[in-house]
Write a structure and sequence with these properties.
By secondary structure, the chain is an alpha/beta fold. It has two domains: 110 residues, Cobalt-precorrin-4 Transmethylase, domain 1; 130 residues, Methyltransferase, Cobalt-precorrin-4 Transmethylase, Domain 2. It is built from nine helices and twelve strands. The strands form three sheets. The protein has a five-stranded parallel sheet, sandwiched between helices. Strands 8-9-12-10-11 form a five-stranded mixed sheet. The protein has a two-stranded antiparallel ribbon with strand order 4-5. The longest helix is centred in the N-terminal third of the chain and has 12 residues. The protein starts with a strand and ends with a helix.
């Protein structure tokens, strides 16, 4: 039996960044269970007959628990219709895809995964800065800034600091002060370039360029999903100016 359930990445938001395969499946789906942050323009690509089910989570306010989502997926799949589970970005990066896949597998339901462009690469494209760079950033680390209990996760801050690569932190806007403090205490220079990108790829995109020590105060309270990019590869003329000013202040 071929798969009739598709776990699809909707990308960072811009409909033009949706994959061709994802676009085709959206137009043939009977039921689409989607995250709240999926852009309405992407949902408008669905067929007129498709049932749209919002099962998203945002700012800790859940419209559906993960257990409920898992049960809905299995229930809809058993109807024999074409079911799409639509997630923002790439479904395999901080998307709790494993739990949904395990529920489908336990019910003997096949699922195909269609990757999407993750926010990190969309932000890098907007900034026109490579996340990796010869002689500057030889490694790339995707981290979550939001733990299961709502606080800061227990990362190995010393190891992350020593790698010298680029850190990309998802869901870190609410914990940026703690993140910065831990990294600096672990040995990161306070003048390390740090950039926040809110609503990457959308018209409402906002970019805050700073250093790791100044970013918490400069960022404010973003309204949309915000990505933090930290490392020497993020250096720019504005970061250099901020760093020079910071050093002058002692």
């Amino acid at each position: 039996m071929s798969a009739r359930v598709f776990l699809i990445g909707a990308g960072p938001g811009d409909p033009d960044l949706l994959t061709i395969k994802a676009h085709r499946l959206l137009q043939s789906a009977d039921v689409i269970l989607h995250d709240s942050l999926v852009d309405p323009r992407i949902l408008s690509l669905a067929a007129d007959h498709a049932e749209l089910v919002d099962v998203g989570k945002r700012c800790g306010k859940h419209s559906a628990t993960q257990t409920t989502i898992n049960k809905l997926l299995v229930s809809y799949a058993r109807t024999g219709q074409i079911i799409v589970r639509l997630k923002g970005g790439d479904p395999m990066i901080f998307g709790r895809a494993t739990e949904e896949l395990e529920s489908l597998a336990a019910a003997n339901i096949l699922c195909e995964i269609i990757p999407g462009i993750t926010a990190a690469t969309a932000a890098a494209a907007t900034l026109q800065r490579s996340l990796t760079q010869r002689g500057v950033a030889r490694s790339l680390h995707f981290l979550t800034g939001h733990g299961a209990e709502g606080g800061l996760p227990a990362h190995d801050w010393v190891s992350l600091t020593r790698t010298g690569g680029t850190l990309v932190i998802y869901m870190g806007s609410q914990t940026i002060a703690g993140l910065a403090s831990h990294l600096i205490e672990a040995g990161m220079s306070p003048t390390m370039p740090a950039i926040a990108v809110e609503n990457a790829s959308l018209h409402s995109q906002a970019i805050t360029i700073a250093t790791i020590s100044t970013l918490p105060n400069r960022l404010g309270r973003p309204l949309g999903p915000t990505l933090l990019l930290i490392g020497e590869a993020m250096a720019s003329e504005e970061v250099v100016a901020l760093t020079t000013a910071q050093l002058a202040l002692g």
